[in-house]
Write a structure and sequence with these properties.
Length: 761
C-alpha cells in the first residue's frame, strides 16, 4: 500500500475534496435560529402542564428539520419549545405533538436511560459560546432523565456527569408535554451582565426512527455539533454555579471470602471496603467526603478523601483470544467527571454513521487487531489492579476548567499501601490552547511515583488537533517517557488525517511507538511498532429501496504493523458490507483476513492451557451479523463467524435479545460461544451476560448483572438497589458474589450499603 506511506498526498486530496451535504446552507440556517427567553417573576411549578400564563408570553423554537430519514425536510410531527428564566433557573416548556399518541415509545425509566430505543427530546447548551464544549440534557415522555458533559464537539461525551435539574412530563391527547428547570448553579459560564449561549434541540420519534433538529445539521452529525447550534440570547444578570458542594458518604459492608474459610497465610484480599489479612468474615464501616469548590466561573477544584467506589457496576467480562491486554472502560464517577480535558490525541476507532445502529467490526471488536495503540492517560491505572480488584485510595484533588482560550486540568491521587502494592502517587497535568474556529494544541504530563522504592515513571506529550471547515481534520501527537530503567528509544508519535461528509468517510494514520516507551499511567498494549492505517467508507441511500433500507455503507479498514526492524508483524483488513434498515435494524457481512507473526508463544486459553507457538500465521474470518428493530418490546441480535485461526479453525456463535415487559421492567442477554480447534488443543469458550432492570420510579431502581465466563471458570452476580433521596444524593445497597462455575464453591461475596448526601451552598 504505497499511498499509505505518503501522508502528504492523502492530506492534499482531503483538503481539496468537496463536501457533499443536503439542500440547506447550514451556516445560514444556524444564524437564523435565535431564541430570546422571556424573563419572568411568576412562580413556575414543574408539573408538566404548561398552564402558567408566563408560557403564553415565552418565545418559541419550532419548525424542526429532519436529518433522518428525509434529510433536510420538515419534521413529520410538530415540536414546540418555549424558554423562560428567572434569577435562579432557566425553564424549557416542551410540546411534542404526535398524531398517533398511542404509538409513543418509552423504553425505560432509569436514570441515564438508553436514548436510542424510545422517543426523546434533547437539549445542548454551549454556555461559554466557544462552539466546542457544552452540557447535554435528554428526557423521554415518562420523565426519565439523561445528562452529560460534551468536550470538543463530541470527541468525548461523559454520560456519567450528573447535575441537579428537574423535569416533569404529561401525556396529552395529541402528544406529550414537559417542563424542565435547570438551575444556573448547575452550569458554568462567564461573568457578564448579558449572556449569549449556543443552543439546539433534538426530537427523536422512535417508531419512524426519525431525528429532527431545531438548528438543522447534516445527517453525519449529532446534537453535540455545537458549531452549528442556534443562539440563546439576552439572558440578563444571572449568576453561574455555586461556589461549594460537599458530599459526605457513609458505607458499611459485610464480606465473606474463600467460601467462609480462613484466608491462606500471606495473602490479602479486598471486597469493596473490606480488607482481609486473616479470618473468614469482614464487618466494616467507613466514611469519606467529596468537596467541589468553584474558584472562578470557569474553574472548579475538587477534593476527595477516603475515596470509595463500592456502588459502581461490575465490569462486563470479556474473552481474550489475543496476545494483548483487554481494555475495560472507566466507570468511577470521580474519574469520569471533566475527563474530556485529559483526552490526548485522537483514536483509531472508526464507527458507523450517527443514528444507524450499525457496528463497524461485524457486530464485535476486531478479532486480532489493537484498536487503541496508546491511551496516554488511563484512569483505571489508579486504584485498580491489573485484574480489576480495588486498591484503597487515600484521596486526591483535581483542578479543571478554562480561562480565556486556555483549558487546564490537574489531577493528583494518593493510592494506599496494600498487600504487594506500595503506596503510590499519580499526577496528571494538562494544558490546552484553543486555536482558530475549532482547533487546539496542548501538552499532557503523567507521573507515577512508588514510595519505599526507587521506581518512577513519567511521560510527557504534545498534541495538536486541527479542523478545516466541517469535513477535514488533522491530528498528531509526540510523546516521550522517562523511567529509571529506560532506554534511549522512548518516543511515541502519531499523525492522522480524515475527511467526512454525507457520502465519504476517509481516514489515514501513521503511529510509531518505540520499544523503550513506557507509560504506566496509560494504556499501551504493545511497543516497538510502526503502524499504518487506512479506512474508506462510502454511503449509499438507494431510492428504490427507501421503504425498507435507509443506507448501505460498505467500508474497508486496513492495519499494517511493522516491528522495530521493519518486519511485518500484523496485517489486518476488514471488508464489510452493512445494510441499515429504516426501522433501526441492520445486517452486516464481510471478511477479516489477518496475518500475525508471533515473536514469542502465548497462552490463548487459560482454562485449557493451550499455547500458540512462535511463527507466521495467515488466516481469514467470514461473518454475518444483524439485529432487529431495538425499539420493539422484543428485539434480538446475532453473529455467526467461521474461518481459519492460527494453526486450526474457529467457529463463533453469538446471540442476544432484549425483552421489555414495560417501561419499568427490562431484561436482556448476550451469549457468545467460540469453538476453537487447534493442533495444540481443542477448547470452547462461553460468555453469558444477563441484565435485569426494574425502575420503581424515576428515582428508585433495581439492577442485576449476572455473568458466566467458562474461561475464567466463574459465575458472577452484581445486584444494585439505588434510591435518589434528593438531587445528587443516593442510597445504594449492593450485593456482589462470585462462584466457581465447575464446583459451585463460593469465591467471595459482599453486601454493601452506601449513603451519600449532597450539601450545596
Amino acid at each position: 500500500m504505497p499511498w499509505m506511506k505518503s501522508p502528504a498526498l492523502v492530506i492534499l486530496s482531503l483538503l481539496f475534496a468537496a463536501a457533499v451535504y443536503g439542500n440547506i446552507d447550514y451556516e445560514d440556517a444556524r444564524r437564523e435560529r435565535r431564541l430570546k427567553p422571556a424573563k419572568t417573576g411568576e412562580k413556575i411549578t414543574i408539573d408538566g402542564r404548561l398552564d402558567e400564563p408566563a408560557w403564553n408570553q415565552a418565545p418559541e423554537a419550532a419548525n424542526f428539520i429532519q436529518t433522518e430519514p428525509d434529510t433536510d425536510q420538515p419534521a413529520s410531527e410538530k415540536t414546540e419549545v418555549r424558554a423562560l428564566y428567572d434569577q435562579d433557573y432557566i425553564y424549557f416548556g416542551i410540546y411534542a405533538h404526535d398524531s398517533q399518541p398511542s404509538r409513543i415509545i418509552v423504553s425505560e425509566l432509569k436514570k441515564d436511560f438508553n436514548r436510542d430505543n424510545g422517543d426523546t427530546v434533547e437539549i445542548v447548551l454551549d454556555t461559554f459560546r466557544d462552539e466546542r464544549n457544552g452540557y447535554l440534557f435528554a428526557i423521554n415522555p415518562a420523565g426519565a432523565k439523561w445528562d452529560g458533559q460534551m468536550a470538543n464537539e463530541g470527541r468525548e461525551i461523559n454520560a456519567n456527569w450528573d447535575a441537579v435539574w428537574y423535569v416533569k412530563t404529561r401525556r396529552v391527547e395529541d402528544g406529550w408535554t414537559a417542563e424542565i428547570a435547570i438551575p444556573f448553579r448547575t452550569l458554568k459560564f462567564r461573568e457578564s451582565d448579558l449572556q449569549t449561549w449556543g443552543i439546539n434541540f433534538q426530537r427523536n420519534l422512535r417508531r419512524r426512527n426519525e431525528d429532527s433538529f431545531w438548528s438543522p445539521l447534516p445527517r453525519i452529525y449529532r446534537l453535540d455539533r455545537v458549531s452549528l447550534a442556534g443562539t440563546l440570547e439576552d439572558l440578563e444578570r444571572i449568576k453561574p454555579g455555586s461556589n461549594i458542594r460537599i458530599k459526605p458518604y457513609f458505607v458499611t459492608s459485610l464480606g465473606q471470602p474463600f467460601g467462609g474459610r480462613d484466608i491462606p497465610p500471606g495473602t490479602e484480599k479486598t471486597i469493596s471496603s473490606c480488607r482481609w489479612a486473616s479470618g473468614a468474615n469482614c464487618y466494616h464501616g467507613d466514611f469519606g467526603i467529596d468537596l467541589k469548590y468553584g474558584l472562578t466561573t470557569g474553574m472548579t477544584w475538587d477534593f476527595t478523601y477516603n475515596t470509595d467506589f463500592s456502588q459502581v457496576e461490575a465490569d462486563e467480562q470479556q474473552i481474550n483470544l489475543t496476545r494483548f491486554s483487554l481494555l475495560f472502560p472507566e466507570k468511577r464517577e470521580f474519574f469520569l467527571e471533566n475527563s474530556g480535558i485529559f483526552q490526548f490525541g485522537s483514536s483509531d476507532r472508526a464507527g458507523p454513521p450517527p443514528g444507524t445502529g450499525g457496528g463497524g467490526g461485524g457486530g464485535g471488536p476486531r478479532p486480532n487487531a489493537v484498536r487503541d495503540d496508546l491511551i496516554f492517560f488511563f484512569s483505571r491505572r489508579i486504584g485498580l489492579s491489573e485484574d480489576g480488584n480495588p486498591i484503597p485510595i487515600l484521596g486526591g484533588t483535581r483542578l479543571t476548567g478554562r480561562a480565556g482560550r486556555f483549558e487546564l486540568g490537574l489531577l493528583n491521587m494518593q493510592q494506599k499501601e496494600f498487600g504487594s502494592f506500595n503506596a503510590t502517587n499519580f499526577t496528571v497535568a494538562r494544558l490546552r490552547r484553543n486555536l482558530l474556529a475549532n482547533s487546539d494544541i496542548g501538552v499532557l504530563l503523567v507521573n507515577k511515583k512508588v514510595f519505599d522504592s526507587s521506581h518512577y515513571n513519567t511521560a510527557i506529550g504534545v498534541d495538536a488537533n486541527f479542523r478545516f471547515g466541517q469535513s477535514v481534520t488533522l491530528n498528531s501527537y509526540l510523546a516521550k517517557s522517562f523511567t529509571e530503567r529506560g532506554g534511549d528509544r522512548d518516543l511515541a508519535g502519531r499523525f492522522a488525517a480524515s475527511y467526512k461528509d454525507n457520502v465519504w468517510d476517509l481516514r489515514s494514520s501513521f503511529t510509531s511507538i518505540q520499544q523503550d516507551f513506557v507509560n504506566e499511567t496509560g494504556f499501551v498494549p504493545r511497543v516497538g511498532i510502526r503502524k499504518y492505517s487506512g479506512y474508506i467508507a462510502r454511503t449509499f441511500r438507494p431510492a428504490s429501496l427507501r421503504r425498507t433500507v435507509r443506507q448501505i455503507w460498505p467500508h474497508v479498514l486496513i492495519d499494517y504493523v511493522l516491528d522495530r526492524d521493519g518486519n511485518l508483524e500484523t496485517r489486518y483488513v476488514d471488508y464489510h458490507l452493512p445494510i441499515n434498515f429504516q426501522n433501526g435494524g441492520n445486517i452486516e457481512m464481510g471478511a477479516n483476513p489477518t496475518l500475525e507473526r508471533l515473536p514469542r508463544p502465548f497462552v490463548i486459553s487459560r482454562g485449557s492451557n493451550v499455547l500458540i507457538p512462535t511463527g507466521v500465521y495467515s488466516f481469514n474470518e467470514w461473518f454475518v451479523s444483524g439485529r432487529s428493530n431495538p425499539g420493539r418490546r422484543i428485539s434480538g441480535n446475532f453473529r455467526y463467524a467461521i474461518g481459519d485461526f492460527y494453526t486450526g479453525y474457529k467457529h463463533t456463535y453469538g446471540l442476544g435479545g432484549t425483552f421489555r415487559f414495560s417501561n419499568k421492567f427490562n431484561t436482556s442477554f448476550n451469549f457468545t460461544h467460540n469453538n476453537i480447534n487447534l493442533p495444540q488443543g481443542h477448547f470452547k469458550t462461553n460468555l453469558l451476560t444477563t441484565r435485569v432492570d426494574y425502575s420503581f420510579s424515576t428515582d428508585m431502581f433495581l439492577n442485576a448483572l449476572i455473568q458466566y465466563n467458562n474461561d475464567a471458570r466463574q459465575w458472577s452476580s452484581n445486584i444494585r438497589f439505588n434510591l435518589i433521596h434528593r438531587p445528587l444524593s443516593d442510597l445504594f445497597v449492593v450485593f456482589n458474589e462470585r462462584r466457581n462455575s465447575i464446583s459451585g464453591d463460593l469465591i467471595d461475596r459482599a453486601l454493601i450499603a452506601k449513603f451519600t448526601y449532597m450539601i450545596a451552598r
